[in-house]
Design a protein that fits this description.
With 191 residues, the protein is of the alpha+beta class. It is 34% helix and 26% strand. The chain contains six helices and seven strands. It has a seven-stranded mixed sheet with strand order 1-2-3-4-5-7-6, with helices on both faces.
């Protein structure tokens, strides 16, 4: 397994990562159908690919690192970024994905501070799950934050105890509540 920065040709992969983070099973349906986007998912994926293709969004391909299997296929990915221009990018991103969201963006806390590094979205393709790839991608994100001299932060759903244990095992600690996407999350950080 090797890691590489995504390119502008990887917008489909970035869109899958974002869809997975939004709680959608597009990736699973794609795999089950023999690598075809289901007709019910076409509009959603087209929109997410447009967001990924831009350079002024949170979910731009420029913020993505992909894990590539020895076979050459994408095995997973992480979208992570510094918080310097978070609010401007958030405004653009959520204006574009408005048809997909069902929460009040204005009530949402900022996920990352200007001097922090945010691990936003992580996904592992179904055939590569259970192999520790999520941990590898998380460690890469932590190292990216450290190389910038920033505290690395993420949001954890309170009911996702497996993810919470993983984050703690990597050294993250709870840093208070975070209200995002219309729900309460746990803000976690590591220096």
């Amino acid at each position: 397994m090797k890691l590489r920065k995504a390119t502008s040709d990887d917008t489909l992969q970035v869109a899958f990562i974002v869809a997975e983070a939004l709680g959608d099973s597009v990736m699973e349906r794609y795999v089950q159908s023999g690598s075809t986007i289901h007709p019910d998912d076409e509009k959603r994926m087209e929109l997410l690919m447009q967001v990924a293709a831009r350079t002024d969004t949170l979910y731009t391909w420029q913020h993505c690192t992909l894990a590539i299997a020895d076979s050459g296929e994408v095995a997973g990915g992480l979208i992570a970024y510094p918080g310097d221009d978070y609010m401007a990018r958030r405004d653009v991103t959520f204006a574009l994905v408005k048809p997909l969201i069902h929460f009040d963006v204005e009530r949402m806390d900022a996920e990352v501070g200007a001097d922090e590094y945010y691990l936003d979205s992580l996904a592992v393709w179904p055939s590569f799950r259970g192999l520790g790839l999520g941990r590898v991608l998380m460690q890469h994100g932590i190292e990216q934050g450290r190389s910038m001299g920033r505290t690395t932060v993420l949001a954890c759903a309170p009911d996702n105890t497996g993810a919470h244990r993983l984050y703690e095992s990597l050294g993250f600690r709870d840093a208070g509540p975070l209200f995002i996407f219309g729900e309460d999350y746990i803000r976690m950080e590591i220096t």
